[in-house]
Write a structure and sequence with these properties.
EC 4.2.99.18; six-stranded antiparallel beta sheet; OGG_N; Endonuclease III, domain 1; alpha+beta; HhH-GPD_domain
Length: about 350
């Protein structure tokens, strides 16, 4: 077994891994990351034990140690991104975030750096869906079209795949999905993907007509262009585009706004929005609000706010904090009005 030094305050395995494709047996977690079957378990407050138990044929050349550190956004010497430093920034003049920092269960919530194709298709599946069904759809894509995982030591680890058979396949490559694109819609509809089947098939078609490394190259573009690129795919709206950009394309400032985050925003940050509906225009304003408030890692702050433990531990913020947050939204509205006026003058 290998050891990765990362304190529990910087990585909460329970909170971070069990919201996606990872599975657990007691305190051990198992997941497939780019064709690698990985095992991780916390040894103590400072260390994580990990091992690569097997891999798909296409992942034969991947260094598991490098991949795991990249996935957790750490290095062998220090954290690429320190949550402790981020919390220091978030808590400046913000009593509400100071209150959240006292909640142990909200520590160690990191954004994982996930594989772009899997992330894109997974979030297309997320439309009007729950985590269990989304996970089931991603697993179905893997079992239908992915490569089998070959265990390094079958006698020692075969019981894991017997207990968790969904971990027996890697997520399919774009080339494999493109080969079956003509039948993909019908097959996925038979697997209860519903209208999402057509979106996935169309997205595969769109990607297959682009350069094969497009999802790697697009990460070098400005965030606004990445958002535009993602929203060009079937079934991708503002929230899905933000999720994919944040979780797989390195855009840490992106803030997905869903109903859960919107309710938190109204309750704890901008109470004047109490009777508002989440329109596209308001969505854009709130994305900018959070980016202005939390900076380059606003998406990491959103992950804390999104966490299901939040409502159990917090109370309404002070009036002073509410006013400060409201002033930020007012500034956004003034900026938007100035842009509209300038546009009208040019016309």
């Amino acid at each position: 077994m290998n050891v990765l030094r990362i304190p529990v305050s910087e990585l909460n395995l329970q909170a971070v891994l069990l919201n996606g494709q990872w599975k657990n047996i007691k305190d051990a977690f198992y997941g497939v990351v780019e064709g690698l079957l990985l095992y991780v378990r916390r040894l103590d407050d400072e260390r994580i034990e990990w091992s690569c138990l097997g891999r798909a044929a296409r992942s034969a050349s991947i260094d598991a140690s490098v991949k795991l550190r990249d996935y957790f956004q750490t290095t062998s010497v220090q954290l690429d991104i320190s949550l402790s430093d981020l919390w220091d920034d978030w808590c400046i003049d913000d009593p509400f975030m100071e209150q959240l920092r006292k909640v142990k269960e909200l520590h160690g919530i990191r954004i994982l750096k996930q594989e772009p194709l899997e992330t894109l298709l997974a979030f297309i599946c997320s439309s009007n869906n729950n985590i269990t069904r989304i996970s089931g759809m991603v697993n179905k894509l893997a079992t239908l079209y992915g490569d089998p995982i070959v265990l390094d030591e079958p006698e020692q680890f075969s019981h894991i795949l017997e207990r968790l058979p969904v971990l027996g396949f890697s997520f399919p490559t774009l080339s494999k999905l493109a080969m079956v694109q003509n039948e993909l819609t019908d097959v996925l509809r038979e697997q209860n993907f519903g209208y999402r089947a057509k979106y996935i098939s169309e997205t595969v078609r769109q990607l297959s007509q682009m350069p094969p490394d497009i999802l790697d190259k697009v990460q070098l573009l400005p965030c606004s262009e990445i958002r535009t690129f993602l929203r060009g795919f079937a079934g991708v709206g503002p929230k899905v585009a933000e999720c994919v950009a944040l979780m797989s394309l390195g855009q840490s400032q992106c803030v997905p706004i869903d109903r859960h985050v919107f309710e938190i925003t109204k309750k704890f940050f901008v109470p004047t929005l109490k009777d508002s509906n989440l329109t596209d225009a308001l969505n854009r304003r709130l994305m900018q609000f959070y980016e202005d408030k939390f900076g380059a890692y606003a998406g990491w702050a959103q992950a804390v706010l999104f966490n299901q433990q939040l409502q159990k531990y917090v109370s309404a913020p002070s009036i002073k904090s509410q006013i400060r947050s409201l002033q930020s939204v007012v500034k956004i509205e003034k900026k938007e009005r100035k842009v509209v006026k300038k546009t009208r003058r040019k016309r």
